[in-house]
Amino acid sequence: MKNQLFPEIIAAIQLGNVDVFQELHRRLRNKVMGFSLKLLRNKEDADELTQDTFVRLWENRAKLDPNKSIEAFLFVMVRSSFLYSLKKNKQHANY
Q1: CA–CA separation, 54 and 29 (whole Å)
Q2: What global pTM score does this model have?
Q3: Are the C-beta atoms of 49 and 40 separated by less than 8 Å?
């Protein structure tokens, strides 16, 4: 599901169409979960990260760019959250 092929999907999500967002979630959840699982190596943590990523996507839907891949955007969000968590845990361990 590339944005270039479906810019109307991004437009609908930006306008707050919950049904379209749920379909996007249904189609991409397993890919995002797989990526999260590779990073975290823990199913529960990966599931939580995946869910948080889709929640943040919904909350930041106005920032979506219809000319860019939604999959790539989701993977960047997962990676950023993972790296932030590592940094936070390292700082916590130092104290």
Answers
A1: 8
A2: 0.85
A3: yes
